[in-house]
Write a structure and sequence with these properties.
With 207 residues, the chain is mostly helical. It is built from 7 helices and 5 strands; from the N terminus they run ββαββααααβαα. 54% of the residues lie in helices and 9% in strands. The strands form 2 sheets. A 3-stranded antiparallel sheet has the order 4-3-5.
Length: 207
């Protein structure tokens, strides 16, 4: 038996368990007085909105140049993929692999993974709730590592500034990419994972 079936709600503010009277329209927490809900209000809608916005910004994040490295007054803007290719051409395979995974694979997996997770919950797909929880936890865990490129660019812009001799300038692609990372992180936080268990149809998942 689930807590929601017994009329027990958890307070999102102080995490107190509250026995809720079903006749109350707006139950409040017995400890802190905050309004309690069985599930986070509009969790699916807010997560979809953040995810769709991130997916739209994902295009300029990969098409627009992310930074421009100038040496002796000359330099060409580089996108994320062109930067990976340049690292490979210079024999820096380990660094290229790290940048490719953190900046290409991880954001793509987050977008696709969250989309599939939301779709499976919303359409009540016959998938294992435990598998979906593993996917959700993995998406939430890897989210922060996508900021690796942004941290590197921020450090280079601050450190490499020698006028016409050498300089690094951040471009619009960096802004779009940072927005994608932040939006996907917010989407993972906004999603209420308890919805996964509400939508499972397997009795084995409740054992």
């Amino acid at each position: 038996m689930r807590a929601i079936d017994a009329g027990i709600f958890i307070c999102a503010e102080c995490h107190e368990l509250n026995k809720v009277d079903p006749d109350l329209e707006s139950p409040t927490c017995s400890r802190c007085g905050a309004q309690v809900h069985a599930r986070s209000p509009n969790s699916m809608a807010r997560t979809w909105a953040l995810l769709v916005t991130a997916a739209i910004l994902y295009i300029p994040a990969n098409v627009l140049p992310i930074m421009t490295v100038s040496s002796l007054g000359q330099g060409d803007p580089s996108t994320i993929m062109s930067g990976v290719i340049q690292l490979i051409q210079h024999g820096m395979l380990p660094i290229a692999a790290v940048v490719f995974v953190a900046s290409i694979l991880v954001p793509t997996f987050k977008l696709v993974g969250l989309g599939l997770l939301l779709f499976s919950v919303q359409r009540r797909q016959p998938l294992s709730a435990r598998q979906r929880m593993v996917m959700y936890r993995f998406i939430e865990f890897i989210g922060r590592w996508s900021m690796l490129d942004i941290f590197v660019i921020a450090i280079l812009v601050a450190v490499v500034n020698f006028g016409r001799l050498a300089s690094v300038e951040a471009n619009l692609g960096a802004v779009a990419f940072a927005s994608v990372v932040i939006l996907t992180m917010l989407a993972a936080v906004t999603f209420d994972p308890r919805l996964i268990w509400d939508n499972t149809e397997s009795d084995d998942d409740h054992e």
